[in-house]
Amino acid sequence: SAAKTYENIIVEIRPNKVALITLNRPKALNALSTPLLNELVDALQVLQNDASVGAIVLTGSEKAFAAGADIKEMSTKSYMEVFQNRLFGQTDAIVQKIQKPVIAAVNGFALGGGCELAMMCDFILAGENAKFGQPEIKLGTIPGIGGTQRLARAVGKSKAMELVLTGRFMDAAEAERSGLVSRIVPAKDLVEEAVKTAGTMAAFSQPIVSIAKECVNAAFETTLAEGLRLERRLFYSTFATNDQKEGMAAFSDKRDPKFTNN
Ligand code: CO8
Fold it and tell me: So where does this one cross the membrane (predicted)?
């Protein structure tokens, strides 16, 4: 499977059907340059198409998940360059095309585009040293990869406004309290805990996991009535799969299910 080599990221396939993507521009604290983002989107699409992979973990280093978009690359760009080249447009594929679960394992700084990238993932596990923020305001710009929208949905208006308008960072404890991250883990254990959690998901029926992900994501896109309708329809659709029959039969037989992804 995906033993493809990249310059700005490292992709590893673990025995538990988990792919681990490590952002690897240590000298720039994993700043999200265009080449890095292109590689990341390529790798995610390769992993999406790799039947041996059931879930993905995205991480950085102990010092930084990613300290933002690459400020040096952006600093001299004109309006027409960012508009016509659709700066950061490639990242839309992460949310729109990846059906497998993606965990962000965040140690250290997740700032600007780094915080936005983490929020594009399905959930965030934070090391106890994690720091989240949208400091674009200090650079004379604003979040441009979803920060104003996803942070507001994740932590509510008051905290999102404060972070976006002041550039203040929040630590892991505040991020967990406010619902941005699902759990805090000791920094040195974070990546292995994320791989283990991804392995739990990778052991379930892949199509059913994707359907569950689609339903939760719909909660952020639609009305309650529409979301409930979608959930009910997709719940019924699981009864058309062998894996639902197997999962319920295994429960009755008091044995482990053997899911076949169909
Ligand atoms: N871009 C480029 N290089 C960076 C970035 C970055 N975002 N962050 C850090 N680096 C580089 C530094 O320049 C430095 O390089 P060098 O050694 O060559 O000087 C190296 O990484 C190490 O960084 P520091 O020496 O600064 O490390 P410290 O430990 O002292 O500080 C900080 C760590 C606090 C994280 C600090 O590096 C920092 O403040 N970084 C910038 C954080 C930031 O502002 N991020 C937001 C960027 S803007 C963005 O993400 C979205 C813009 C959306 C625009 C949408 C347009 C469509």
Answer: none
- pTM comes to 0.96
Expressed in angstroms and rounded, the spacing between residue 213 Cα and the centre of ligand 1 is: 32
What was the pLDDT predicted at 3?
A: 57
Q: Which atom of ligand 1 is nearest to the CA of 138?
A: 44
Structure-token pair, residue 47: 């992993």
- Tens digits of residue pLDDT in 189-206: 999 999 999 999 999 999
pLDDT for position 156: 98
Q: What sign does the CA torsion over 48, 96, 37, 56 have? A: negative
Beta-ladder partners of 170: 132
Residues with CB under 6 A from ligand 1: 28-29, 31, 67-72, 82, 87-88, 109, 111-113, 135-136, 139, 141, 143-144
Question: Would you mind telling me the total number of residues written for the chain in this entry?
Answer: 262
Cβ-count burial 147-160 (b if 16+ within 10 Å, e if not): bbebbbebbeeebb
Closest to 127 (Cα-Cα) out of 150, 147, 151, 104: 104
The ipTM of this complex is: 0.93
* Active-site residue flag, 69: yes
